[in-house]
Amino acid sequence: MYQPFLDYLEKELFKQFDLSSQPIPPGLERQVSDRAKHRAIIQSWCYQCPELRKIRYTYMDVGPVSQVFNSVIYPSHCYDLPLLGIDFLAFGKKKILVVLDFQPLFRDEAYQEKYIEPMRAIRDRYQDLAQNLEMKFYDANQYFSKYLLFAKIDSLETVQTEVFEAYKDYLALYWQMVEQAEPLTEPEDIQRIV
């Protein structure tokens, strides 16, 4: 279900950045289990480049039972960019959860205006994916932006169309922010991020 999302991310990453592969602990790079009715495969990738200190994504495929695509992209410490967080989960074809966000490092008004407000226009185009769902495990105000895409969906077609388009738009904006980011030079500014 989410393989096109993974393929698109990978294609974009290699087009935009000079990536170097990073090691994944032995046994965690790829695992396959045939113990249940459906084969389960979980695979992870990890890269870095000068602009992004860690790019990690994982795909879990248990056939029609569940599909999970998760990624977090961490900017280098010399940039005050937000993290890019992606969580797409499907349990069967009707229980689908979508989470996509630029996770802010800071809450001050200048930071929000610079990095979070540009998301507003994209989020406004995808109102069906901006549901006001309760966060059960996290304080949304602490970890997420106000333009988070967070939705429960019951349609594979919505994933293949609206979710995929929103995903591409969010990625394009993030790449633009990375490209335009000015490296921090003051040690105290960098230390604030570290």
Describe the structure in your own words.
The chain has one domain: oxygen-dependent coproporphyrinogen oxidase, CATH 3.40.1500.20. Strands 1, 2, 3, 4, 5, 6, 7 and 8 form an eight-stranded antiparallel beta sheet that branches. It contains six helices and eight strands; from the N terminus they run αβββββββαααβαα. The protein is an alpha+beta fold. It has helices spanning 3-16, 109-116, 120-125, 140-143, 156-180, 187-193; strands spanning 20-21, 30-33, 40-48, 52-61, 66-75, 83-91, 95-103, 149-153. Strand 4 (52-61) and strand 5 (66-75) form a beta hairpin. The model has no long low-confidence stretch (mean pLDDT 92). The protein is globular and about 55 Å long. 33% of the residues lie in helices and 30% in strands.
| Count of helical stretches | 6
User: What structural category arises from helix and sheet content?
Assistant: alpha+beta
Overall mean pLDDT stands at 92
List the domain count as a whole number: 1
Low-confidence stretches: none
According to CATH, what is the topology? oxygen-dependent coproporphyrinogen oxidase
